[in-house]
Amino acid sequence: MPCLYLTTNLNLDEVDKDPIFAEATKAIATIIGKPEHFVMVILKGSVPISFNGNKEPAAYGEVVAMGGINKQVKRNLIATLGTIFQDKLSIPRTRFFLKVYDTTAGSNSTSKL
C-alpha cells in the first residue's frame, strides 16, 4: 500500500482537500503501478516549517511503498506531486521536498501472516 504523508505550513482548514486527495491518489497509483484503492494520502497543515531561512509556503512529503520504486518512479513522483501542490496549494515546486522510500529495498527479511 503506497502512502503519501504531506506536511505543510499552510492552514488547510478552508482548503477544498478533495481534489488534492483525488489527484495525488491517481498520480501515485499510476506512477507506482498500484491500484488506487491501495493508496493512502494524509495531509497535515499548519505545521511550522522554515525553508531557505523563511516561512513562506512550503511542504515536506514522504511516499512509502512496498515495491514499485526505482529512480525514474522517484523522479516522476517528485515532478507530478510537486505540480499538484503548486496548482492546488500555491506551494512553489522549489519549496517542496519529497522523500520516496521503498520498504522492500535492501530487505532480506520476510514476514509471515
TrEMBL record:
<dbReference type="InterPro" id="IPR014347">
    <property type="entry name" value="Tautomerase/MIF_sf"/>
</dbReference>
<protein>
    <submittedName>
        <fullName>Uncharacterized protein</fullName>
    </submittedName>
</protein>
<dbReference type="GO" id="GO:0005615">
    <property type="term" value="C:extracellular space"/>
</dbReference>
<dbReference type="InterPro" id="IPR001398">
    <property type="entry name" value="Macrophage_inhib_fac"/>
</dbReference>
<dbReference type="GO" id="GO:0050178">
    <property type="term" value="F:phenylpyruvate tautomerase activity"/>
</dbReference>
<comment type="similarity">
    <text>Belongs to the MIF family.</text>
</comment>
<dbReference type="Pfam" id="PF01187">
    <property type="entry name" value="MIF"/>
</dbReference>
